[in-house]
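User: For my dataset I need records formatted as: sequence, then structure tokens, nothing else. Please produce one.
Assistant:
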Amino acid sequence: MTIPPPPRRKHGKNAFMFVIVTVALDLMGFGIIVPVMPELLKQVTELSAEEVVAWGGALTATFAVFNFAAMPTIGNLSDRFGRRPVLLVSIATLAIDFVIMGLANTLWLLFLGRALSGLSSATYSTANAYIADVTEPENRGAAFGMVGAAFGIGFIIGPAIGAAFSLIDVRAPFFAAAALAGINFIYGYFFLPESLQPEERRPFEWKRANPFGAFQHFRKLPHVVWFILAVGIFALAHSVYPATWNFHGDIRYGWQAWEIGLSLTVVGIGSALVQGGLTGWLIKRIGAIRTALFGYVINVVSFTAFAFAGLGWIAYLVIPISALGGVVGPAVNTIMSNVTPKNAQGELHGASASIQALAMIISPVV
């Protein structure tokens, strides 16, 4: 597939909004399929709800293995060839992944779909690099918060659509997600401008285009490697939730697909409100480091509360508290981005995404 030259547009609010919409649509497609995964796995494997949890964790780990291996390469490619082609190829491959999973009648096809998604899942890290390209350092906290809000908006709408389509057929949400990804690709193909100008790019280097090479390189930059480590430790804890929330709701609370979708919609509302409205203000008010520490404390409290939430309505009470912990990601991204050269932003966010993927390999298995 040939990617056309980028549209001739100036960077600014329009370019920023293009990326926000891209991220929202991408997460909407992902959120659509989450409520039906337990039922699809039960259908494909003919196992009980408790027995398919292990397969759900294995699918998440498969995504993470390929994501971990590929993200630094993808980040380096965006530093060499620009953000736009990387985003477009990623979105197109995601659409193919959803079609494969919608048609899958065997476990190996589901694993193939997750592997493809892991290889191409560049949207978040490349979107962050794009945002770093088009915003000034003092505005990046609010900008990264808006990317997080776009994730939240995608998770408001996506699970609700998935829950509705699940009433038609357990596979219908996958085809709806593929359609959304296709619309997203067409939108970006015609309207997304390139953010990284040719004179700002750098040669592609294989020694930096792998997880360990990227981490080695960032040791030369002040503090960055420690923040990447902090991102990984936090991801190790947080990755429990996207890997098991739908299975957890099915088994512990007896939720059906539409109820799982509803709970994720509430999660998305909290995320959008906090990251879109609170994060930028908080970073400007108390600084990125204090904002990150505040978020970590909130997450410790909310994770503990979820563990003891024996009834579904109690889990709903904890969700708004946990949403406040969403300030962590934008705050840490702001700190790292501000001490990283412009021509290494893709590499930075690729390395960060890669360490999060490594956590996603371990966390679902645990």
